[in-house]
Specification:
Helix 13 runs antiparallel to helix 14. It contains 33 helices and no strands. The longest helix has 24 residues. The protein is mainly α. The chain is globular, with a radius of gyration of 31 Å.
């Protein structure tokens, strides 16, 4: 027997001797045979290293037992054993003929998918590399040819001539002239079939995305570029379009993010050449963007809106990579992008506006033409709005083109050689005219006119003081008219219908969006008089939204708790009044934060702090059912807010997202040098924020997934947007705004004010109501820690007075006590 055979035999013997406590295979008399996990792992790895230099000497008689033992190792409870067996399988395929490709893939794929459900980061990466290796090998020319065993006569003759050399079996992979084992679609189907199984958990689905990424890297840029249309078709048809990927809002956003990660961060940036990028733009445009039509032919299937969003994002990224695109690409893209602005979906219209903004930023020669086209179209369509012969999709077309026009106006200041000031004046005149005329029309038409007007004004405010200073007096009058003091009718139930309430909330939210953009881009124009006027308007709006929420508290709670079920009998419109109310409250808090602590808001700062604390730390102030949470906790189905897939997670802030290096409060240095794509996938796969001795692989994940359609204002900044913004959903956005407002105002308070705020936080964190709702308890603790962390970081810029207040013994003791409570509660195991 050769030395390789002896190593194989000993390694298998050690591998089979499990050390799992209570194993039925280990009897009392065989306890001395039990081997530690580290020894079993190293035995397999030693054999794996032997294959690199002596794989050809592996005897055929041991192959069957070897496969059986390694397959068992892939299902072993010790994760290090799984990793070692996965690595061994790769070496078996590379250096021996003991792994017939097709039968090995068919046997290993189900085992690896099962192991991926419980794998930690290292194990997942090892399994991903192993499975990706075998799938990539199936694309090698000749891999589809069945291996032919060498003839015994030839083998005997060879042994006589070379008695000291081992017999070398002919491998199918050595035949480079044959066909591949699988087509591209057949290969990728192996992954998508597992991804789309009903019983596949979220962790497995994210792990399969990791396998996709590893597979594309293994195949290489040349292969991916050659088969790009097939890869696009597969991911669109098998990952994005299936019903399960769109079953909930969270699933939709998670799938969109995962596929976008593969196309943009991996294929687009790393694997495609410049010619490949041009080809990819043509593929997305011709196969998807051009095929969408506002009025499709009868019998034509309706294009999935999620596919269009992914296509628009990828086209924007590819155009950014190309820089100044060739004329053929410019001609190809311009018309489809403008046409998609009329899509019925708000998300698609906003994605198209973002793509058009990126397109014109990179190719500024297109900017004046697009501005003139969109302005003319919006003006013409507004003139037809409300007429009996108006198309049904006219309002969608108007708002979509208004989005795009606003996005292009926002960047015109950075391209002054291409855009004249005349168009900005025309747009402002159009917006003010619309606001004046909106009072003459019914709510449906007035709502469109008000939205368009404030969208355009918000974009114009991105131009900075040079343009805004001249129009500031007129703007202050417009804001005063849109944000009046609330009346008794604004807090009473039943005097207004749902349509009227929706309109009033919308008007205020759009007006505040323009104010917020003014505060972000025109700091030099904010004197004490302007600040005092704006603070009054913000207070009016906060009182209005508080009155509405109090009057309709039961109906709002009912709809918030039952968003995926039948609609409330009182609120039926989409967007719902729950979302409208959340959007408006978020805007008010954002505006107070942007205005900052000034003498104009000194008197209201204590009330603002209490409002912010109520938003993010009140045990009962969240959209969720405490009864349902308690039932889930008692039944054992509750497993923490970081595993939540409802897109809200008991009201936890999304400002804790630090795994992508966004500078959040939980940034971890060990991940600084990790591959960005691996980090992104890991943040979706990981399960928990709290570290625990028993589960060292628990890490922060993202129960809240942001997307551009959650806040249209994110497409209007004057600076460049290299990546699509991902603002949080409205209800989480309120929590984020509360945390940020607390962090901005708290450092400016006197010692008495800080003591009062910390006492409120402490009472909320210690509330007995949280004991019955572990999900909300975790969220309150996380939000409190985020708010305190940001507040303490803002202390350096708050001045000597603020630091002196914080340094007082009473304030310091309260902060320490609160941090201790949050720490010990976060360490408790949630049951």
């Amino acid at each position: 027997m050769s030395f390789t055979a002896e190593i194989c035999t000993v390694s298998l013997k050690v591998l089979r001797n499990t050390n799992l406590v209570g194993s039925p295979f280990i009897g009392p008399g065989n306890a001395h045979l039990v081997q530690p996990v580290i020894l079993r792992t190293q035995a397999v790895l030693s054999f794996s290293k032997t294959l690199v230099s002596a794989g050809r000497a592996l005897p055929d008689s041991l192959v069957k037992d070897l496969h059986k033992a390694l397959r068992g190792g892939l299902a072993d409870r010790a994760l290090s054993i799984q990793r070692a067996c996965a690595e061994t399988y790769v070496n078996l395929q590379l250096y021996t003929a003991a792994c017939p490709l097709q039968s090995t893939i068919e046997a290993l794929a189900p085992l690896m998918f099962k192991s991926l459900e419980t794998a930690d980061y290292l194990t997942r990466r090892s399994l991903s590399r192993s499975l990706a290796h075998f799938l990539a090998a199936s694309q090698v020319p000749g891999s589809g040819v069945v291996a032919v065993e060498p003839k015994k006569v030839a083998a005997k003759k060879d042994e006589e001539e070379n008695p000291n050399e081992p017999t070398i079996m002919t491998s199918a992979a050595e035949d480079r002239s044959g066909k591949s084992l699988y087509t591209t679609q057949e290969m990728l189907k192996i992954l998508s079939n597992a991804y789309n199984k009903v019983q596949s958990p979220r962790k497995l689905r994210n792990a399969i995305i990791d396998v996709y990424a590893t597979l594309f890297i293994a195949l290489g840029g040349s292969y991916v570029e050659l088969h790009y249309p097939e890869i696009v078709k597969h991911l669109v048809d098998e990952i994005v379009s299936p019903a399960r990927s769109q079953s909930t809002r969270y699933e939709t956003l998670a799938t969109r993010e995962s596929v976008g990660l593969l196309f943009r961060d991996l294929i687009g940036i790393r694997l495609l050449s410049e010619s490949g990028q041009v080809m990819a733009i043509r593929e997305w445009t011709n196969s998807y963007l051009k095929k969408w039509s506002p009025s499709p032919l009868p019998g034509t299937p309706k294009m999935n809106k999620q596919v269009l969003i992914i296509a628009l994002r990828e086209v924007a990224g590819l155009a950014e990579q190309l820089g100044n695109a060739p004329p053929s690409v410019l001609e190809l893209l311009a018309e489809p992008l403008v046409r998609v602005l009329a899509h019925e979906s708000y998300s698609v219209r906003l994605a198209a506006s973002y793509t058009l903004r990126r397109f014109c930023t990179i190719n500024p020669t297109q900017l004046p033409r697009m501005l003139n086209i969109l302005l003319a179209d919006v003006t013409r369509d507004l003139a037809v709005l409300g007429q009996p012969a108006a198309p049904k999709d006219l309002s969608n077309r108007i708002t979509g083109k208004a989005f795009a026009l606003s996005a292009l106006i926002a960047i015109s200041n950075s391209r002054p050689l291409y855009v004249s000031q005349e168009i900005s004046t025309k747009v402002f005149d159009l917006a003010t005219t619309l606001l004046k005329k909106s009072g003459e029309h019914e709510i449906g038409i007035a709502g469109v006119e008000v939205q368009v007007a404030w969208y355009l004004i918000a974009a114009l405010l991105s131009l900075g003081p040079a343009f805004v200073k001249l129009h500031l007096p007129q703007l202050l009058v417009l804001w005063r008219n849109a944000l009046p003091k609330p009346t008794s009718k604004d807090t009473s139930v039943g005097e207004r219908g749902e349509g009227e309430w929706s309109f009033l909330l919308l008007v205020r939210e759009c007006a505040l969006a323009a104010v917020l953009n003014f505060l972000r881009h025109n700091v030099s124009l904010i004197n004490i008089d302007v600040a005092r006027r704006l603070a009054t308007l913000f207070t009016n709006t906060l009182n209005f939204v508080n009155g509405f929420a109090t009057a309709y508290s039961e109906a709002l709670r009912e709809q918030a708790n039952d968003q995926n079920a039948s609609k409330s009998s009182l609120f039926t419109a989409r967007p719902s009044l729950v979302e409208r109310e959340a959007n408006l409250r978020r805007r008010v808090l954002q505006c107070f934060t942007a205005l900052g602590p000034t003498s104009a808001t000194d008197s209201m700062q204590p009330a603002l702090l209490q409002a912010a604390i109520t938003v993010f730390a009140d045990p009962e102030n969240y959209s969720g059912s405490a009864a349902q949470a308690a039932i889930a906790a008692q039944s054992g189905t509750y497993n923490g807010i970081w595993n939540s897939t409802d897109g809200y997670a008991f009201g936890v802030t999304s400002l804790l997202g630090a795994r992508e290096g966004e500078g959040g409060v939980d940034a971890e240095e060990p991940f600084l040098n990790r591959d960005r794509i691996e980090m992104s996938i890991e943040s979706q796969v990981s399960t928990c924020l709290v570290y625990n001795e028993c589960k060292a692989d628990r890490k922060l994940s993202h129960p809240i997934i942001g997307s551009l359609e959650h806040d249209f204002l994110e497409v209007l900044p004057s600076q460049a947007l290299p990546n699509p913004p991902r603002p949080a959903p409205p209800q989480t956005g309120v929590v984020n705004a509360g945390v940020e407002l607390f962090a901005a105002v708290f450092p400016q308070q006197s010692a008495e004010g800080q003591i009062q705020s910390l006492a409120s936080l402490s009472s909320h964190v210690r509330s007995s109501k949280l004991e019955r709702n572990p999900g909300r308890k975790q969220a309150v603790v996380a939000n409190t820690m985020a708010a305190l962390n940001r507040s303490l970081r803002n202390m350096d810029g708050a001045g000597v007075k603020a630091r002196k207040a914080l340094g007082s013994a009473q304030v310091t003791d309260l902060v320490k006590s609160l941090l201790q409570v949050c720490y010990f509660q976060s360490r408790l195991k949630t049951r």
